[in-house]
Give the backbone structure.
Amino acid sequence: MYTVRSYVRPESLNEAITELRSGKHNRVVGGGVFLKMQHRAIGKLISLDGLGLDQITETEDSVHIGGAVSLREIETNPIILEHFPALSYAVSQIVGVQMRNLAQIGASVFSRYGFSDIIPCLVATGAKVKLAHAGEFSVEAFLTMDRDWDILYEIIIPKGVTLSYDNLRQTNGDFSSLNLAIGKSSDQVRIVYGARPMGAFLAEQASAAAGQGKTLEQVTQLVKQEVPFGTNLRASAKYRRHLAGVLLEHLWEAE
Ligand SMILES: Cc1cc2nc3c(=O)[nH]c(=O)nc-3n(C[C@H](O)[C@H](O)[C@H](O)COP(=O)(O)OP(=O)(O)OC[C@H]3O[C@@H](n4cnc5c(N)ncnc54)[C@H](O)[C@@H]3O)c2cc1C
């Protein structure tokens, strides 16, 4: 449980980022699901409710998701279902509906959880994030940046990418033991593993080989050579390496 000295509800993004950066104990609150599990003395708790960030919109060439959109909205939104049904499916795997009604996409991506089901999908599509202080970055670049006090206020996913996703969980509601997202556009393939148990990893050599029309066996071999897998309570590195081929075969056949 956390304690809060004051609660603020800014009416502009500028005001929100100024409030956040005015003290190192300040925090933004999304759905509050993860914050609630931490023991923390928060100075100012900053709500994003007044900023209109709870919308999903589209332009001719991209889908825009506000940082305060709930996971449940992503799962059920017609724009997402039309362009990225695999993202809706990936989100539907997370815990249960009550939790997904609360948890928000901005928090989910900004927190860079290694177990994320969402981040591999975004990397596979070549999505970008917009940060109030640091600016705009590809999700891939964002994952390598130092952590800083910032607000993720928008995610932009380019259209024209066919996304597929699969995962293995020991039980419903658990974290993935491994997940895989593949994005295919007219000029490239992006193969991304998550919950390795480390964070999302873009398998560049395997992706290039898949783009050049190499066989499943050749691409699987490259995946096993280049993607680092680790061991935790859910699975060993050896099992994950094996599973990487199984998930790839599932998605390969599904396409
Ligand atoms: C029990 C449990 C199981 C889970 N299982 C999975 C899973 O299997 N797969 C998966 O992908 N995810 C999983 N999650 C993570 C979940 O999907 C959410 O990502 C998580 O709850 C954070 O969302 P929230 O809105 O509750 O964030 P909060 O608790 O409100 O915030 C979390 C952190 O993000 C910061 N923050 C909030 N909003 C923003 C923003 N817009 N910009 C910058 N920083 C921000 C907060 O200051 C805080 O540090 C799980 C979470 C829980 C609690």
